[in-house]
């Protein structure tokens, strides 16, 4: 086996630089885990991007939870649940959103918010018979699914370096 074949077949790190005109594309692979970044400079902003994602998710849930807690009687009629369960939902949304925003028990908070959203999706599909986009294109369960995926990212990555608890 020649030097090039030995290098390419080894299980060590492989880095190939492909030049296309004036652009450089860096491909890196480790033991079958291949990553391709067109803009590797943006990797420096990962913690800021994750913080912005956490704040956005937290704002969505804290406003929803606050509405549940502010007027549980009216909200319970809107969501078709008891007043007590509506208060529980509101408290869970507020607590989860604070955990997500501040990075305290972030993965646990994200898991809890995913469970709440799966319950909302179940209700929209099987009870209210709402389609993915809904009647108006904005009142279906597409929004809920997006929040599940956003929380799934937070659940799998964690709070990042810009958290109160690491």
Describe this structure in words.
This protein has 166 residues and is α+β, with helices and mostly antiparallel strands. The protein has two domains: 3-38, no CATH class; 44-157, no CATH class. The protein has six helices and three strands. It has helices at residues 3-9, 46-70, 72-79, 83-102, 106-127, 142-157, and strands spanning 14-20, 23-30, 33-37. Strands 1-2-3 form a three-stranded antiparallel beta sheet, with no helix packed on it. Helix 2 (46-70) packs across helix 6, helix 3 (72-79) crosses helix 4 and helix 4 (83-102) packs across helix 5. The longest helix is centred in the middle third of the chain and has 25 residues, at 46-70. The chain is globular and about 50 Å long. 21% of the residues are buried. Mean pLDDT is 84; it is low at 6-33.
Question: How do the strands and helices of this protein lay out in sequence?
Answer:
Elements: H1 3-9, E1 14-20, E2 23-30, E3 33-37, H2 46-70, H3 72-79, H4 83-102, H5 106-127, H6 142-157
Helix pairs in contact: 2-3, 2-4, 2-6, 3-4, 4-5, 5-6
Outline of the structure:
By secondary structure, the protein is α+β, with helices and mostly antiparallel strands. Helices cover 59% and strands 12% of the residues. It has a 3-stranded antiparallel sheet with strand order 1-2-3, with no helix packed on it.
């Amino acid at each position: 086996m020649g030097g090039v074949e030995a290098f390419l077949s080894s299980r060590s790190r492989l880095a190939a630089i492909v030049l296309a005109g004036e652009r450089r594309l860096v491909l890196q692979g480790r033991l079958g885990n291949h990553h391709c970044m067109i803009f590797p400079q943006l990797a420096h902003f990962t913690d800021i991007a994750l913080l912005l994602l956490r704040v956005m998710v937290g704002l969505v849930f804290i406003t929803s939870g606050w509405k549940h807690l502010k007027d549980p009687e009216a909200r319970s009629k809107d969501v078709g649940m008891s007043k007590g369960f509506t208060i529980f939902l509101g408290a869970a949304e507020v607590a989860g959103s604070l955990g997500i925003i501040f990075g305290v028990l972030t993965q646990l908070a994200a898991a809890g918010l995913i469970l709440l959203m799966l319950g909302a999706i179940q209700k929209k599909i099987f009870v209210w018979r709402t389609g993915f986009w809904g009647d108006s294109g904005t009142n279906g369960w597409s929004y809920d699914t997006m929040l599940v995926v956003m929380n799934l990212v937070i659940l799998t990555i964690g709070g990042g370096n810009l958290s109160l608890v690491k």
